Fold this protein.
Amino acid sequence: MAAQYVDVSMIRRNPDQPRKTFDSAALEDLRQSIERHGVLQPICVRKIESGYEIVSGERRWRAARSAGLKQIPATIKEELDDTASLELAIVENVQREDLDALEKARGYQALMDRVGLTQEGVAERVGLKRSSVANHLRLLDLPKDAQEALTKGLISMGHARALLSLKGEKEILGALGQVVRKDLSVRETEQLTKASEPASTASGSGGSVGAVSSKEMAPAAPWVHEIEGQLRETLGVKVTLKNGKKYRGSITLDYANRDELERIVALIAPKKTL
């Protein structure tokens, strides 16, 4: 279906959009690119009474609107109900690696709740193994603070899976605090959770020493966080950048399984195979 130019003002975001977070630095980069080159890939919309609703491509729409564009190229789906729109939005975003782990999990759960798919059905639609879908869905069992740490890239999906082996919110948050403070690797986190040592409590406070404070969760420098965010958005895994004197340092990528490793290798070195 050929793309058409649609007035930006006639387009609204999809309230069921599986993607909930948008990196401000990445959006600014996209805005600048659109100002120079225009929107190179059409967004996908469906016709509604008041105009059009985004199925996929909200980042491009946001950036185009910020860049002052009056129109944007779009592929229009004439007959697409709410359920079909949700399914297409999730599938396209997952295939484009545009969602973080929790957004994928919520999207998979929505497909099961709204479309009536099983885990096997979801896996077939998005082109993944059922075990991968199941592992993502387990992330929804994490306490809110742990989910926030995962979204911010403070822990990876591998860390999250290790934390889920603990029983109870207090134990998970206590271990999370240690993981963040000590910058533990996935393997070290697995060893920590296997030890099953309860987090000690602060004297007279009743709170966990391991609880993650807002100060601990703040990045060391804004530009470090921005670069980590851009890499995380591209690669879909936790990225840790450590910068030393004269800009000598290291970049660490965390992956949870062979599937994630193969995907990272395919993105960085497409011709390489394991």
Observations:
- Residues 219-274 form one domain.
- The beta strands are 4-7, 11-12, 43-48, 51-56, 71-77, 239-243, 249-253.
- The chain has 13 helices and seven strands.
